[in-house]
Write a structure and sequence with these properties.
The protein is an alpha/beta fold. The protein has a single domain, classed as 3-Layer(aba) Sandwich (Rossmann fold). The chain is built from three helices and four strands, in the order E-H-E-H-E-H-E. A four-stranded parallel beta sheet has the order 3-2-1-4, sandwiched between helices. The longest helix has 14 residues, at 68-81. It is globular, with a radius of gyration of 12 Å.
C-alpha cells in the first residue's frame, strides 16, 4: 500500500495494543510520524520502539483520556514532539 504519507503526523489514541497499534505501525510504515497513545507509558514506549526499530518515526504521549488533565497533558506532549497533528484517530 502506498498512501504517500511522507511528512504528516498522526496521533493515534489507544495505540498501545490491538487495532490501534496496527494502525500506528501501518501509518509509520507509510511515512507518517506517529504519536503513540495509551494509558500505559511502558506499552506506549514499547510500540514506539517497535516502530523505530522498523525505521519509522514515532513518539509517545501516555495518559487516560477519561481524565481531563491526562488528556490535556497527552495533547501537549504530542504537540511538544511535533509542530502540529495532521491525522487524528
Amino acid at each position: 500500500m502506498d498512501l504517500k504519507l511522507i511528512g504528516p503526523s498522526a496521533l493515534i489514541t489507544g495505540s498501545t495494543s490491538g487495532i490501534g497499534s496496527a494502525v500506528a505501525r501501518a501509518l509509520a510504515r507509510e511515512g507518517a510520524t506517529v504519536i503513540v497513545h495509551g494509558r500505559s507509558e511502558a506499552r506506549a514506549r514499547a510500540v514506539t520502539s517497535t516502530i523505530a526499530e522498523a525505521g519509522g518515526l514515532a513518539h509517545y504521549a501516555p495518559g487516560d483520556l477519561n481524565r481531563e488533565a491526562d488528556a490535556r497533558a497527552a495533547i501537549a506532549q504530542a504537540l511538544n514532539a511535533l509542530d502540529q497533528i495532521d491525522i487524528g484517530k
